[in-house]
Design brief:
The protein is an alpha/beta fold and 650 residues long. Residues 11-408 form the Aconitase/3-isopropylmalate dehydratase large subunit alpha/beta/alpha domain.
Length: 650
């Protein structure tokens, strides 16, 4: 049977299991990516594993999220991360070098390789024909130590692209169209594989945009073929020798199919609250705008900044708009400057910021209350911007963002082009710059042995976790609705994120956007009973940050019962010894309220005996389902993977 790109990638790295959708498989991992918001825990986990040196082909620690240094905490973590990268044999990218995903794509991405990263947007490297998957930090630590990645074999979702994008539409509109059609759960337990003649009009960086935001679909990852366009990209980066052609075989059949005619697309925009609440820009045109932010891994290419510069060139942005530009990396800023775009943006009123994630993770650039913020970023969950839970963040293309910055209201770039006589066409961009020595190479094994870890007072170490009890009775401390994100559980932003390497301190922020008293209430019963949380559909969507599992676990969380779970958070719960159960009855979720009591008996036998668990809610019997493999059941019962390894039980 002919196979597609995703199937070929999995088959060439399969070390255990059958490639049947729904079955657990194990994959050999070639590369890893960590960033500073998640990497500090990964480095602590490598310490706990007593790792001598990285066993992967390439592992890189980036610093791109927590760049604001309002006090000493972020700088303290950066020093720790550099020392840990040197000690364990990882490459290190210092603050200001650039956002991890496009920088990794430019420097290390290679067709045919597997990569995992402790960031949900790791699939961006699928743009080069890689199998790149976002996971929790503990799984990255295990891969760095040479262990395979265990995942559920996904379905392969073939998306055929035909035609060409019309003027004033770009790659962002392609992925927004997918989100408009399928929502944030449409890609669950699927790999999205793009194919078809429409690929010819999409550059490698265009494909990066689409692969990056496949995470918003809930997909395991996204892959593109390694074709002539990928060869051109690598050649321009001085790495043509890393190119290997990887194409879908003729006659490939996919588990699920989709078709997008690119010529029929129009400028799209995601309304505040969800990346999936997508409408045509023309339908919301005229809505006042107070902020426009261009940058992030979801629109990282030189072309994305250049088209914005072309639109605003020789004009002034609206006086009521804060026009923020976050360059993706040092080389892209250098190229934009060489081309003349930096001058155009600054002259038009842009505020030029350092290369990094910044407002994408709520580290600065919070919008004013009650104002609309248009961003070329991947997520707009409530509160993620750092501007409070009532922030109004819209997601759009650079074309729509720049047009709206000029007018001070949401503007269809096609309408602006007609009004101003703007032309659409080749931007005549320069060849990309390569800055030698930008990333710090791992030292020799002998030098690494001499490296001392630099630990300031804000670095706490991993908490000790106990085994999972056989029977227990716990109160439901929180009952929440659908689409609870990891930002809701463990908030991002400038207030909380500096504590990412200090679990006791970070736990004080857990769920505070939903219930400010949750940390105190959980702490009060932590030792006596612990507690449960009840959720709806797609519990734990969004970021891969394992803090959203380990902080509630530190506060005594034993079990989460929900209608369904987002993939990465579900795995993170198991990694730290939290039992994830699903309701089986249609109305069961509605019958469980905050303050109810959950009770379970003989859980060890129940979990090892099948996929159903019987418990009671306020004395009434309920049947729940778990989706854990035998390996994961043992891990949960042992109290999580770190404890399991420490006890020699893995």
């Amino acid at each position: 049977m002919p196979h597609g790109v995703a199937h070929q990638l999995i088959a060439s790295h399969l070390v255990d299991g059958e490639m049947t959708p729904g079955e657990e498989i194990a994959l050999r991992i070639d590369q890893t990516l960590t960033q500073d918001a998640t990497g500090t825990l990964v480095m602590q986990e490598l310490e706990a594993l007593e790792l001598d040196r990285a066993q992967t082909e390439v592992s890189v620690q980036y610093v791109d999220h927590n760049l604001l240094q309002a006090d000493e905490k972020n700088a303290e973590d950066h020093a720790y991360l550099r020392s840990a990268a040197r000690r364990f044999g990882l490459w290190y990218s210092q603050p200001g070098n650039g956002v991890s995903h496009p920088t990794h794509m430019q420097r290390f991405g290679a067709p045919g390789k597997t990569m995992i990263g402790s960031d949900s947007h790791t699939p961006a490297c699928g743009s080069l024909g890689m199998l790149a998957i976002g996971v929790g930090g503990l799984e990255v630590a295990m891969a760095i130590a040479g262990q395979p990645l265990s995942i559920v074999m996904p379905e392969i979702w073939g998306v055929e692209l035909t035609g060409e994008l019309p003027p004033w539409c770009s790659a962002k509109d392609v992925i927004l169209e997918m989100l408009r059609r399928h929502g944030t759960k449409g890609g669950t337990n699927r790999i999205v594989e793009y194919h078809g003649p429409g690929l010819a009009g999409l550059t490698a960086m265009d494909r990066h945009v689409i692969a990056n935001m496949g995470a918003e679909l809930g997909a395991t990852t996204t892959v593109f073929p390694a074709d002539e366009e990928v060869r051109r990209f690598l050649a321009a980066e001085g790495r043509e020798d890393d190119f290997t052609e990887l194409l879908a075989e003729e006659g490939t059949q996919y588990d699920v199919t989709e078709h997008i005619e690119l010529s029929e697309l129009e400028p799209l925009i995601a309304q505040p609250g969800s990346p999936a609440d997508v409408v045509p820009v023309r339908e919301v045109a005229g809505t006042p705008v107070g902020q426009v932010v261009i940058g992030s891994s979801a629109n990282p290419g030189l072309r994305d900044f250049a088209i914005a510069a072309r639109i605003v060139d020789g004009r002034q942005t609206h006086p009521g708009v804060s026009f923020d530009v976050n360059p993706t990396s040092r080389p892209i800023l250098a190229d934009l400057t060489r081309w003349g775009g930096t001058t155009s943006l600054i002259a038009a009123g842009a505020r030029l910021h350092q290369s990094g994630c910044l407002g994408c993770i709520g580290m600065g650039q919070a919008p004013a209350p009650g104002t609309n913020s248009l961003r070329t970023m991947p997520r707009n969950f409530p509160g993620r911007s750092g501007g409070g839970k009532d922030d109004r963040v819209w997601l759009c293309s650079p074309e729509t963002a720049a047009a709206s910055a000029l007018r001070g209201e949401i503007t269809d770039p096609r309408a602006l082009a007609d009004e101003l006589g703007l032309t659409w066409g080749d931007l005549d961009l320069p060849e990309p710059s390569v800055i030698p020595g930008m990333l710090e190479e791992p030292p020799s094994p002998e030098e690494a042995q001499q490296e001392e870890l630099v630990k300031g007072p804000n670095i706490s170490g991993l908490p000790e976790l106990d085994p999972f009890p056989d029977s227990f009775e716990v109160p439901v401390l929180l009952a929440v609705g659908d689409d609870i994100s990891t930002d809701d559980i463990s908030p991002a932003g400038a207030e909380a994120l500096p504590y990412r390497s200090n679990i006791p301190a970070l736990a004080r922020f857990a769920f505070t956007r939903i219930d400010p008293d949750y940390p105190a209430n959980a702490e009060e019963i932590k030792e006596s009973t612990g507690h449960a949380i009840v959720g709806g559909e797609n519990y734990g969507q969004g970021s891969s940050r394992e803090h959203a599992a380990i902080c509630p676990r530190y506060l005594g969380l034993r079990v989460v019962v929900a209608r369904s779970f987002a993939r990465i958070h579900w795995q993170n719960l198991a990694n730290f010894g939290i039992l994830a159960l699903e309701f089986t009855g249609e109305g069961d979720r509605d019958a469980v309220s905050q303050g109810a009591t959950l009770a379970f008996s003989d859980l060890h036998d129940q979990l090892t005996g099948g996929d159903e668990v019987v418990g009671t809610v306020d004395g009434t019997e309920f049947t729940f389902r778990h989706r854990l493999s035998e390996r994961q059941v043992r891990m949960v019962l042992d109290g999580g993977l770190i404890r399991q390894l420490a006890e020699g039980e893995a």
